[in-house]
Structures are given as C-alpha cells and as structure tokens.
C-alpha cells in the first residue's frame, strides 16, 4: 500500500495556521465567538494567528477586537474603510503568515472543519479544502432563501465558467505558498471573490477537495440577501469575462 507523504510542519517559532475572518458590524457576537475560537485552536497545539479583517465597520467591532488582543496575542485586526467582504478576505490572506491559511465566518468559527482540512493538507492529499454546504453528507440548516441562493449561484458558475464543485463560498483552507499567485490574480471582490479563488485554483491545476460541513445560522446576515443580488449579478459578469479572457 502506498504511503502518504506528509508536508513539513513549522517549527515552534513559526505560524503554522492563519485564520482569516472578514467581519462587518459584528459587535453583538464577536467577543463570544473569538474567545471560543481561540480556546479551541489552542487545543490543536500548533502556532496560529487569527486575522480579523474588519471592513466598513461603524459599530464597536474594531474596539472589541483590540480589547481582546490584550488577553489573546494570537489575534490581529485589519481595518478597511468600506464594506467589502472579498477585499477584506484577499488582504487578510495576503497578510497571513501561516503555512496554511483558513477562511472562516464569525458566525461559524468551525474548528472541526479546520481539523479535518489540516489532516488532508498535512498529508499532501490536496492543496485546498472547501467546506461544502451542498454536497452529500452536508447539513445546511440556514433559511430556505439562503440555501436556494447557494444552489443558484453554484448552477450559474457551472454554466458560465465550467466549475464542477458544489460550493465556493464560506469555509476553506489551503497551503498558502501555491495559492498566493492565484489570490493576486483574482479580479472580483465583494461576494464573489471566494468563488473566483476556488475556480482559479482548480484551473491552475491545484488539487481542490470538498468535504461536507454542517451550518446553522446564528443571526441574520449583516447585509440583506435581496440587496446583494444586483451586486452579485454584476460581479458574475466580471468573473465570467475574466475567466474567458484567460482562456485565450
């Protein structure tokens, strides 16, 4: 039986795992979630950092993170002046110091997903792990409108870009080194940056694996779904144009 090759692990002085979490006006749940997240990550016994990418926050989100940084040196905060999920995620990834970068959501903070992803990445089974809310074995307990939106976006990506996965948005983890150039090449920001990242990684020949996750909404999204539809439509047009241009 073939043996699996493990990727080299970091020394104790290096950051092995960076988690990037974009946030927009999340003061209501931020402290509880970050305290729980850091506690669970410490149990992994590998050096880590949590980068909170605050974008366009008008509440006390940044102040809460800065206060928590006194007790949790693993925390860092980035500030962007305008609400822009994709830009916050992109800057957070490029600022990350870890061998592995994980992307999470403040209402999820799913350490179980990152444990499962790290097992695959440590053993060189793939370059990127995507947490799918739609593949067999997943449990998506979000409201019907949000579940439907995920399926619609995925179908549109299938038809327009040749993408063949089941999900692109939300939880993911990847080895940073081979993904840096992919991140830099992405042209779409806001909601569809995460989709472009996954699509471009696959098109670059990187090994993208999906694993099922369980999600349940803890609070209403900070930006209403109906307000995001026109923006997502525009960004989808930009994404398709960029992908088709790359084919030439």
Structure description:
The chain has 248 residues and is of the alpha/beta class. Helices cover 44% and strands 17% of the residues. The protein has 8 helices and 9 strands. It has helices at 27-42, 61-68, 85-95, 111-122, 144-161, 176-185, 193-203, 225-247; strands at 17-23, 48-55, 75-80, 100-103, 128-132, 139-140, 172-175, 208-212, 214-215. The strands form 2 sheets. The protein has a 7-stranded mixed sheet, with helices on both faces. A two-stranded parallel ribbon has the order 6-9. Helix 1 (27-42) runs parallel beside helix 2 and helix 5 (144-161) packs parallel to helix 8 (225-247). The chain starts with 16 loop residues before the first strand and ends with a helix.
Q: Given the C-alpha coordinates, what overall shape results?
A: globular
Count of DSSP helices? 8
Q: Strands across the major sheet, in which order?
A: 3-2-1-4-7-5-8
**Radius of gyration (Å):** 17 Å
Strand content: 15-25%
In whole angstroms, the N-to-C terminal distance is 42 Å
| Count of DSSP strands | 9
**Roughly what percent helix?**
40-55%
Quickly list its features.
248 residues, alpha/beta, two-stranded parallel ribbon, 8 helices, 9 strands
Task: Furnish the topology, listing elements before pairings.
Layout: E1 17-23, H1 27-42, E2 48-55, H2 61-68, E3 75-80, H3 85-95, E4 100-103, H4 111-122, E5 128-132, E6 139-140, H5 144-161, E7 172-175, H6 176-185, H7 193-203, E8 208-212, E9 214-215, H8 225-247
Parallel strand pairs: 1-2, 1-4, 2-3, 5-8, 6-9
Antiparallel strand pairs: 4-7, 5-7
